[in-house]
Amino acid sequence: NDYDNNTIVYTIRDYHDSKQYLFLSAFKIQQNRAPVINAENEIRLSDGKLFLKRVNVTDPEEDSFECSDDTALFDISYDCVILFTPEIPGTYDATISAVDAFGNKADKNIIFEVRE
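^ that's the sequence the OP posted. Answer follows.
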């Protein structure tokens, strides 16, 4: 039985002889939320200089999570560390993703500007 958006009530009826037995159980439901990527929208880099950054990612329920990216510019580690040396000046769009243990996903688009 639906009670409200955050509660489910289960009702079990049992008939024994002429008596009816009723069992009720109520459960609070808490929605698991996606991780949050706390990073700036634009990062400036210098051509030929090592870049090291751990992207700040948090999870509201403190679930474990893993990071990934969609760019050929660098590979982010599962624990959200970017480590590379940019070699070609230009502006690059990258999407950083974080997925928690429950499959909830957060994406953050970041512009990387590599300067000479």
